[in-house]
Design brief:
Elements (H helix, E strand, L loop, with lengths): L8 H8 L5 E3 L15 H20 L14 E3 L1 H8 L7 E5 L11 H19 L15 H7 L3 E6 L2 H13 L2 E6 L5 H9 L3 E4 L4 H13 L4 E4 L5 H20 L10 E6 L4 H14 L3 E8 L4 H8 L27 H7 L5 E5 L1 H15 L13 H6 L2 H9 L4 H5 L2 E5 L8 H15 L2
Parallel strand pairs: 3-11, 4-5, 4-7, 5-6, 8-9, 8-11, 9-10
Antiparallel strand pairs: 1-10, 2-3
The structure holds pyridoxal-5'-phosphate (PLP).
The site of pyridoxal-5'-phosphate has 19 residues, from helix 10.
Length: 440
């Protein structure tokens, strides 16, 4: 029953005990992850999103000021840093990559999901002879092209946010759209989609089964494209563009990234596409100077379990965990094997977080920085303390030869991945829960 593979006894003990901990990736730097996938594809995806920008500006009024570029700010967070790290020595500077405020989709899913729908749209229009080289992307919003798209369906399986991103984009281009939602999906996310004419199919099972159902339905229909969160390269590449944008923001802020000025990035992880794509892009741009860590709920640590186990697919159920978490964006029982394979030599480690901490940090982010995020988006906040103030963190710094001088120059980026569209009532309930937990 239990496929232990190479999961150590102590790892199983921590996982089954729901103890928050930091797992260090023994395969970091071994072999070259980028050799498995051409890194030039990241720059190409960035260029493509630039080309699509005028179309997006036309479809979404909220993107007019950015000329159709969907991007979030890089924020300083001095109050939060004080709260999280106190007087720890050599703590460097803490920043937030505020994807919770990404327009159109309200989460990190904006880049990947919207990119994949645009790529499908471009391909269909080209094949129909309605788009030629040199055309402006706004052609994709012309009457004959919209008529073409109306005959096609874009489908996806989701715990919520990917569905929001795909559904909104597909509907805006005139596609029919079907979103298969897993049991965790919040009611408001379903309603938001239905209001835009998206068909929402509710599944009583988990994320993996919602994806499987969607994949099966699409396989039987040649006019249905399924956005496969577990296997899609386009989705992954769309996410990776965040790295190009972050690099430009760091440069604009005068922040150097090299061996003497290391960059630590902490990103919440579900199936792996979003954090994996970002990591792939960042390792391509910064190499050994960037250290990427993923954050997962203690009851859904699918990427940790997959990377620590070895080759074949392992789900968290196999080690006795239940996938129960309020972090709906991270409630995934098995990691994407595509992403796990690409991350094996690239990701520095994975840490786990308890739900009660997610709520405490949600409250903290509001109090310290006046930011409104959803529970999934706070998972990264555990990262810097693990790095600076745990045995595993010390081990990592030693292995990487990161002395106090380098750490004092370090930049730590917490990726806040979602939350802009959480309804006020829902948010208040999260906030109150976090407040109560913080005061006890
Ligand atoms: C989906 C999601 C993630 C993780 O992305 P994956 O591609 O599933 O790993 C993190 N945070 C939020 C808010 C999300 O919706």
């Amino acid at each position: 029953m239990v496929k232990q593979n190479s999961l150590s006894k102590s790892a199983l003990f921590l996982l089954r005990g729901h103890t928050p901990w930091l797992w260090l990736n023994p395969n970091l730097g071994r072999g070259n992850g980028s050799s498995q996938l051409d890194v030039a594809l990241v720059a190409r995806a960035g260029g493509k999103l630039d080309w699509f920008a005028p179309l997006l500006a036309q479809l979404f009024p909220e993107l007019q000021s950015s000329g159709g570029i969907i991007e979030s700010p890089l924020l300083s967070a001095a109050n939060l840093q004080r709260q999280l790290l106190g007087n720890l020595p050599a703590q460097g500077r803490l920043l937030l990559k505020a994807d919770h405020s990404l327009p159109v989709a309200g989460s990190v899913k904006a880049r990947g999901g919207i990119y994949e729908v645009l790529v499908i749209a471009e391909k269909l229009a080209r094949e129909a002879g309605l788009l030629a080289d040199g055309d402006n992307a706004r052609v994709l919003n012309s009457a004959p092209v919209r008529e073409l798209f109306a005959g096609y369906t874009v489908a996806v399986g989701s715990t919520g946010n990917l569905g929001l991103s795909i559904g909104v984009m597909a509907a805006a281009l005139g596609f029919k759209s079907v979103v298969h939602m897993s049991a965790e999906a919040k009611q408001w996310k379903k309603e938001r989609l239905r209001k835009r004419g998206v068909t929402v199919v509710e599944h009583s099972g988990d994320y993996a089964s919602a994806v499987a159902a969607g994949r099966e339905q699409a396989a039987a229909d040649p006019r249905m494209h399924f956005v496969d969160d577990e296997n899609s390269l386009d989705l992954f590449l769309g996410y990776s563009v965040a790295a190009l944008r972050l690099k430009a923001q760091l440069t604009a802020a005068g922040i150097a990234v090299d061996r003497e000025n290391p960059l630590f990035v902490y990103i919440p992880c579900g199936v792996g596409g979003a954090p994996g794509g970002i990591t792939f892009g960042l390792k391509y741009l910064f190499g050994d100077a960037v250290h990427c860590f993923f954050a997962e709920p203690v009851d859904s640590p699918c990427m940790l379990v997959q990377l620590a186990s070895g080759k074949t697919s392992v789900s968290i159920y196999e080690i006795g965990l239940g996938n129960n978490t309020e972090a709906d964006g991270l409630a995934v029982p098995a990691a994407s094997l595509l992403v796990a394979g690409l991350m094996r030599p690239l990701v520095a480690g994975v840490f786990t977080v308890a739900d009660r901490d997610l709520f405490r940090w949600l409250y903290q982010l509001q109090k310290s920085e006046n930011l409104k995020v959803e529970p999934s988006a706070t998972a990264a906040l555990a990262g810097p303390r693990f790095l600076l103030d745990s045995d595993a963190g010390e081990e990592y710094r030693k292995r990487q030869r990161l002395d106090n001088a380098a750490m004092a120059n370090a930049t730590h980026i917490l990726w806040t991945t979602g939350g802009a569209f959480v309804p006020e009532e829902e948010y208040q309930a999260f906030f109150n829960k976090g407040k109560e937990l913080s005061n006890n």
